[in-house]
Amino acid sequence: MDHLKVADTLSTLGFIYDLHGDYTTAKPLYERALTIQESNLGPTEPKVLQTLHNLGMLYILQRDTVNGDLFFQQAITKLEKILGSDHPEVGKVVELYASLLKNVGRQEEAETLLKRAEEIPAKSMESSKP
Question: Residue 120: which domain range?
Fold first, then answer.
């Protein structure tokens, strides 16, 4: 279990460096945390998904949208498998992804994702009606 504590520490340090805009330092910390988490927890555990999400944000903020897209899409796909595509948490991640894309000038893609994110709460409310 100690190795998971190391992963948590690496992820937290990565997040702190990320917040301060030091993406060069944050990236290897996130990557190492992800490797430890995936090998010990499996690919669909919440901590793994959070690290994928954090890496996706980091890459997009660095304008490396190829890798950013890859990590975000992995996180969204895995989250949908666990919670279902209409779960509000999926909507939150899709919305965050859309706003990051908008910030880097990918307006059309962002609008499509925002529409999808807005539909998710409505769908989840419909499916919960008796």
Answer: 2-128
